[in-house]
Design goal:
Number of helices: 12
Helix content: 55-70%
Number of strands: 2
Order of helices and strands: HEEHHHHHHHHHHH
Largest sheet: 2 strands, antiparallel
Strand content: under 5%
């Protein structure tokens, strides 16, 4: 105790000396090891410098994280034009971040991946709108396959090497961000946050359904896709693609029908589909020309009709009704994409019957 006090006295005695030799710095011997004690002012300065450097590194990393979130805010203000779509965008952004946080536990890396997914979604949606005048919905994810990618790579010159270059540039950046990021988030709060955001998004999507005509407008890319995904996820998990009652009062007969032997050679059938064409005289007060009804008569002079589920825009409903003999309404909220979902899966209908 006396020796420690004397050593401290010598240290304080030489504290303000301009030249402090190594002999004046107290030396401790402990277990035959020599330990030189750093002067307090030097230790304090060293700790302060280390703290300032650490604070600057933390500030830069926090600034990077804030910049990513501000970029997402800019995308929101640019693409979402109403309060409900904006709320759906915010919930989608939260869900993506919490999803990646549950896997990676790194906020900046999770935000960067979320922003990259949103940018890719917007670019793909703009590409589809430029060709089909419709934006991307979750139904496109259900029907996409390897042939779709092959078709895109074929019709767009240079797309393959552009995608490859983007991936090669993105991987090193993500690895660098992964290694430099000091922040960590526990997985349990991240999972809870993802579930909360998805639940709120599903409630919003069912409470305020999207307008079918919105798919033809080049905006609200993220909110339209996210709301369609939430509705599709709930429908697929509860009832599947088809909308049907759990039980029917009568069971249809599944017995094979007897073979039909034609009495003579069957004629060729040519179906002409006139877009948005129907007898306008069904609407009261409509005046037409004298020979208007002639275009609706068959070669035998008779006028026949059948009921379809849409006129005007959803002309593929009519095609599906005629060729498959089925109702598009059986697909519920997936009816709008019936030709994509049911392609190659219908084993009945007019073409199949004629082929047999």
């Amino acid at each position: 105790m006396v020796r420690g006090t004397l050593a401290t006295t010598v240290l304080l005695h030489n504290y303000d000396s301009p030249c402090v030799s190594a002999d004046t710095i107290p030396v401790w011997r402990r277990n035959a090891a020599v330990i030189r004690v750093m002067p307090p002012v030097v230790a304090l300065l060293n700790n302060r410098l280390a703290a300032v450097a650490a604070d600057r590194r933390s500030a830069r990393r926090i600034a990077l994280l804030a910049a990513i979130h501000l970029a997402a805010l800019g995308v929101l203000l640019w693409s979402e034009t109403a309060p409900v779509p904006a709320a759906a965008f915010v919930l989608t952004w939260g869900f993506l971040n919490f999803f990646w946080l549950a896997l990676l536990r790194r906020p900046a890396t999770s935000a960067a991946l979320s922003l990259a997914m949103i940018v890719i979604l917007i670019l793909l949606s703009q590409f589809k709108h430029g060709i089909l005048m419709m934006t991307i919905t979750f139904a496109d994810v259900l029907v996409i396959d390897v042939d779709t990618f092959s078709f895109l790579l074929t019709i767009i010159p240079g797309l393959a090497w552009k995608v490859g270059l983007a991936v090669l540039l993105a991987i090193p950046l993500l690895v660098l961000l992964w290694r430099l990021e000091p922040f960590r988030v526990r997985r349990s709060p991240a999972v809870a946050g993802a579930m909360l955001c998805f639940g709120a998004l599903a409630v919003l999507s069912f409470a305020v359904p999207t307008d079918r005509e919105d798919e033809f407008h080049p905006n609200k890319y993220v909110s339209k896709f996210a709301r369609s995904a939430a509705v599709a996820a709930v429908d697929l998990s509860t009832r599947g693609v088809l909308e049907a009652d759990a039980a029917a009062p009568e069971r249809p007969s599944l017995a094979a029908a007897p073979p039909c032997e034609p009495a003579g050679k069957l004629p060729h059938i040519v179906m002409v589909f006139a877009e948005s064409s129907f007898d306008a005289t069904m609407m009261p007060g409509v005046k037409v020309g004298a020979d208007y009804h002639a275009r609706f008569r068959s070669f035998d002079g008779r006028t026949r009709s059948f009921v379809v589920e849409g006129a005007g825009g959803p002309s593929w409903y009519t095609e599906y009704n005629v060729l498959a003999g089925l109702s598009a309404r059986s697909f519920g909220r997936f009816a709008y994409y019936v030709t994509q979902i049911a392609a190659g899966r219908v084993e009945r209908g007019l073409p199949t019957a004629l082929r047999r």
